[in-house]
Amino acid sequence: MTVHALLSARVAAALAAAGAVDAPPVVQLSSKPEFGDYQANGVMGAAKALKLNPRELAAKVVAALQLDGIASKVEIAGPGFINITLADGFLAETVARQQADVQLGAGAHPAQKVVIDYSSPNLAKEMHVGHLRSTIIGDALARVLAFQGHQVLRQNHVGDWGTQFGMLTAYLVQTEQAGRDELALDDLEAFYRAAKQRFDEDAAFADQARDYVVKLQGGDVRVRALWQRFLDVSLAHCEAVYARLGVQLTRDDVMGESAYNDDLPRVVEDLRAQGLLTEDQGAQVVFLDEFRNKEGEAQAYIIQKQDGGYLYSTSDLAALRHRAGRLAADRLLYVVDARQGLHFQQLFTLGRKAAFIPEAVATEHVAFGTMMGEDGKPFKTRSGGTVKLVELLDEAERRAFDLVSGKNPDLAEEKRRSIARAVGIGAVKYADLSKHRTSDYIFDWNTMLSFEGNTAPYLQYAYTRLASIFRAAGPFERHARLMLTEPAEHALALQLAQFPDLIAQVAAETCPHFLCAYLYQLATKFSRFYEACPVLKAEGEARASRLALCAAAANTLKTGLDLLGIGVLEEM
Ligand code: ARG
After folding, report:
1. 208 ligand 1 Cβ < 6 A
2. Are 320 and 347 in contact (CB under 8 A)?
3. 180 falls within a domain
4. 117 pocket-lining for ligand 1 (C-beta < 6 Å)
5. Does the beta carbon of 157 sit less than 6 angstroms from any atom of ligand 1?
6. Which ligand 1 atom sits closest to the C-alpha of 158?
7. Is position 297 within any domain?
8. Would residue 11 be called left, alpha or beta, if left means φ above 0 and alpha means ψ between -120 and 50 degrees?
9. Which Pfam families does its entry note (predicted)?
10. Pick from 251, 284, 301: which residue ends a domain?
11. CATH for 436
12. pLDDT for res 33
């Protein structure tokens, strides 16, 4: 049981003993050290409901509260807050137990099957900054859920279908690439632009492109093969980005729009059979009462176009059914831009209405805001174009290399390059992950690469300090008995003991920024401890205990950063 769960259970039992059965205990971390480590704030609400004096009820609850061996002090404050200070021995045991467990006490029961749809770029073009957030937020969540012991199924719902691919395959033929072994597609973006220009200017080419769309959808072997080759090149571009970002997606996780193609007529038929479809200006749509416009009219969710073509919504319905049915998932996560909010609300509502998903399956749109430039507008190149992800990552590494070279000019260049990779990529990822995902955020090189504040370099640096302590210490027992005597030791152990609660919160709310804030506090508490308590100069059991505490901090920091997909360094 986590510390929070344990305290909540004990306070709930005491509330019940004092007459407030089923009253929520409302246990949370204390806002200030004067208020102890945790506060139970449920008494006020319970007293109000039962029309009792809150201080009197608090006294009864405290009298009934069983925290022997857990708390060293329990106090009533203000109108009826209960302040709890944990016993050093209890904290020491909790930390020791966690450190002996590969999941650091954060295993979740029962384990679920979780589908997580993330990255999911459109393969007609190259990955740009618009794909960064989905890719790294999704990857962090997938790692956290897997760490808890859930079965995680990654689904890269790439855009690999539709009219654009007719144009692109036709252009492969036009540029006489169809017969070549290697496609000259180093620059997908330029290829797309050239194809689009030809499409707009050359009517015969546009006709051919349209003919190719029909052939592609009809399963024409030659066009399908061209299309497949184009996709292979485009996916290879994505995979190069994933590798640089340390993102765990592989080819096996690709389940693009095209994979649902054969299922689309069935989706439409099912909706029709259930009487959910309406014809509206020749198109097949669903009107959902839940979604009305300003005039109070039900809004249409388009399923099939007038010309019979299918849409993004149609393949998402098929994907939804596949994930809940075939994949038998308990929870479906979609890490997609907040601007697609209405689409997902309609998708989930319709999916339930049509019984494509069982009642118990959770569907969540893990929405995120826009990445902004320093001017506060959506992030663009100076000339106003979209920024390719590859270029952004190059710049991150370049800047980090200059930084590392300035700090540590004597290090071999190879070494500085590898540090710069970890720091530069880590900084970009962390800057994103540390913001609340639903807000827009300003992408600012100087802040993210700073060694101070809530940044990746600060955390990576804290880890190198720990690593250097271990090097200087020589061999020691990582699991030596912890003796917490100083306030700074208590504070660090308290932080460590919260790890399982924190991971549960990140997973439940799908918010990686909680983990960032936690790690930042952990690094800060380690720093304070290291200033206040000599480690290497301490003696005997005190030295052993403090080294073991450092080992617990290092292990937790490294694990936490790994869950964010950020590497640590032994030196920098
Ligand atoms: N390819 C889409 C885009 O770039 C994102 C797909 C997200 N996933 C989904 N199942 N709709 O906007």
Report:
1. no
2. yes
3. yes
4. yes
5. yes
6. 1
7. no
8. alpha
9. Arg_tRNA_synt_N, DALR_1, tRNA-synt_1d
10. 251
11. 1.10.730.10
12. 86
Q: CA–CA separation, 198 vs 334, rounded Å?
A: 35
Best mutation site among 336, 339, 342, 364 for ligand 1 pocket (most ligand atoms within 8 Å of CB): 336
The count of structural domains within the chain is 3
- Which residues does 377 contact at the CB level (< 8 Å), separation at least 6? none
Residue 186 clears pLDDT 80, i.e. is over it: no
Pair of tokens at residue 65: 């509260």
CA of 343 to the centre of ligand 1 (A): 11
Question: Distance from the CA of 118 to the center of ligand 1, in angstroms?
Answer: 8
Report which secondary-structure segment, H or E, holds 155. Answer: strand 151-155
ipTM above 0.90, yes or no: yes
| Amino acid identity at 433 | L
Nearest to 371 by CA among 446, 428, 447: 428
pLDDT tens digits, 247-280: 999 999 999 999 999 999 999 999 999 999 999 9
Q: Cα(76) to centroid of ligand 1, in Å? A: 52
The residue whose CA has the least distance to atom 6 of ligand 1 is 120
Do residue 81 and residue 167 come from a single domain? no
Whether ligand 1 lies within 6 angstroms of the CB of 316 is answered as yes
Residues 172 and 59 in one domain: no
The pTM score is: 0.95
Site to substitute for ligand 1 among 234, 254, 340, most atoms within 8 A of C-beta: 340
Query: Domain span at residue 18?
Result: 3-86
pLDDT band at 290 (very low <50, low <70, confident <90, very high): confident
- Say whether both 72 and 172 belong to one domain: no
Decide: 319 in ligand 1 pocket, CB within 6 A.
Answer: yes
Computed over its alpha carbons, how large is the radius of gyration of the chain?
A: 28
**Which of 10-14, 158-162, 297-301, 312-316 has the least mean pLDDT?**
297-301
pLDDT over 70, % of the chain = 99
Give the mean model confidence (pLDDT) for residues 557-570: 97
Boundary residue ending a domain (86, 117, 133): 86
Q: Verify that 64 and 185 share a domain, yes or no.
A: no
pLDDT, residue 296, reads: 84
Which residue bears the tokens 């909706």? 271
